[in-house]
Write a structure and sequence with these properties.
With 503 residues, the protein is of the alpha+beta class. The protein contains ten helices and 32 strands.
């Protein structure tokens, strides 16, 4: 091997590896917390051959870090306990990966940012709620055993919660599958450390509701099934109301979530008479398939977009009240990983979906299944394309997912406050949406984008009666709805859940 080839191999070896530093996203000043470290290779799997030393330097708001740290030989992960949030503001861990010998110097890595409060108003947890396993009977080469879903999410991606959401046709193909999914949900649910959800994906034909996921509070609930031939296909002509009817009869707490409504072919349109605010509090706005926020976006749907009123913005105009989440849905059992792996052995990868998989952010008082389940029902969520960026939107006393009655002041003028700390970025655009349409944009630039709590204030002084939506199919009384999309220079985005103002 000549010198040029050897150097190419060395650089490829380094650039194909990823060191992930994870700290809790919300802390109290003076609170102790751990730093979790995870190393993955080009295939997204744990990689134990990184021998470089991490040199912690230029950290922010964190006490107790050692000067240096090295992974044990052969280990792909580690945990450093006893760190402390120094003060209110933003905490970040930064490290230099020493000993690379590269001409441009040692690379630097950074953790997710954390918001530190004197008294945290909530805690923030991250997860993937749409993972396919080998029980889905879809992409056989990349879909793995459902237990791997839990192990990967907890130990490799350092997520707080996960849900295998396999296709019903795959679950029903083997009578042993659903009992095992129930067993694994019980086994891996560990309050305070990691939360599991029992879930499945229910596919419905065009005009019958499209694709929806079901999430249970309990881990011994039944799955949905009808004894008819088309249930074994990808688009049963079963109205979504039939799913809800059977789930209601089971008597177990649940909710359903529509996803990739913007895709061409099978999708859900909001001019159909099908919506249940009590049963479906959330909308999966992004996954590796693309974004269903609106028809034209920076994340077009894999396989093409439809031209129907089927997008999140259309749903808002129709009077639905959805919070938002994102997840992976990439038909590979690597929840929370970066790349798309829907490939077969020895073949060039198919261009399917997007490089990043989405994450769901849930604001809840504690890391426990009931707390997360209730927070999702209350729309106390937001969505990102992958980065654990911190965002918030408030109008008066109403936060993300909230509703507020319009008083005289709000009828005259509304002040919308968006706060954000964008992970590992130095520029971003904050796009304010009103009633599903772009209203205003503000750009941020500089190191404070990733290191401070940035507040962007929008004032909407158009009288509310003039802008309110009226006679919407699912909410005829007048209302206005605001949400924000924050785009960063790395190609990522975050979406807030909306706030509704009722006249």
């Amino acid at each position: 091997m000549d010198a040029l080839t050897a150097e190419a191999h060395r650089v490829a070896h380094m650039t194909a590896r990823r060191i992930c530093l994870v700290i809790p996203s919300v802390c109290a000043a003076g609170e102790q917390f751990p730093l979790r470290i995870s190393v993955t290779g080009w295939d997204g799997l744990p990689c134990g051959d990184v021998t470089n030393t991490l040199v912690f330097e230029e950290c922010q708001g964190v006490d107790g870090l050692p000067r240096t740290f090295s992974l044990a030989p052969g280990e792909a992960g580690a945990r450093i306990d006893g760190l402390r949030a120094a003060r209110p503001g933003v905490a970040i861990v930064r490290a230099r990966v020493a000993g690379t010998g590269h001409k441009d110097g040692d690379p630097r890595i950074v953790s997710n940012p954390a918001w530190v409060f004197d008294t945290p108003p909530y805690r923030l947890f991250w997860g993937d709620l749409h993972v396919h396993t080998s029980f889905s009977n879809c992409s056989g080469w990349r879909c793995l055993d459902p237990e791997w879903c839990y192990r990967y999410a907890r130990e490799v991606s350092c997520l707080d919660f996960v849900a295998p959401a396999d296709h019903l046709r795959g679950i029903a193909a083997d009578a042993k599958r659903w009992p095992r999914l129930q067993h694994l949900a019980r086994q891996y649910n560990d309050p305070g450390r990691f939360v599991s959800f029992l879930a499945f994906e229910s596919s419905h034909a065009q005009g019958c509701g499209g694709d929806n996921n079901v999430y249970y509070l309990d881990d011994d609930a039944p799955y949905f099934w009808l004894e008819r031939d088309d249930m074994h296909g990808i688009a049963p002509a079963v109205p979504l109301q039939e799913l809800w009817k059977q789930l209601d009869a089971n008597g177990r707490p649940y909710f359903t979530v529509p996803h990739h409504t913007g895709r061409a072919g099978k999708f859900r349109s909001w001019d159909e008479n099908c919506y249940s605010p009590a049963r479906e509090p959330l909308f999966e706005i992004y996954s590796s398939w693309g974004s269903s926020e609106m028809r034209w976006s920076r994340y077009p749907m894999s396989g093409g977009n439809n031209d129907a009123p089927s997008y999140f913005t259309d749903a808002l105009k129709a009077g639905t009240r959805f919070g938002v989440i994102a997840s992976s849905d990439d038909h590979a059992t690597l929840p929370g990983s970066v790349h798309q792996f829907r490939i077969e052995p020895f073949r060039v990868p198919t261009m399917q979906g997007h490089a990043h998989k989405g994450l769901a952010a849930i604001r809840a008082p504690e890391l426990a299944r009931a707390a997360l389940f209730n927070a999702m029902r209350q729309r106390n969520t937001y969505a990102t394309t992958h980065a654990r960026s911190l965002v918030d939107l408030r109008i008066g006393d109403a936060g993300m997912g909230g509703e507020i009655a319009a008083d005289a002041s709000l009828r005259r003028r509304r002040t919308i406050r968006v706060q954000c700390t964008i992970a590992d970025a130095n520029t971003c655009r904050v796009v304010l949406m009103r009633n599903g349409e772009e209203l205003a944009v503000q750009s941020l630039r500089g190191p404070q984008v990733a290191s401070a709590i940035n507040e962007v204030v929008f004032d909407d002084d158009v009288p509310l009666e003039r802008v309110a939506l009226k006679d919407a199919p699912f909410h005829p009384a007048p209302f206005a709805v605001y949400h924000a999309r924050i785009e960063d220079q790395n190609g990522g985005a975050a979406w807030t859940s909306p706030v509704w103002i009722d006249l």
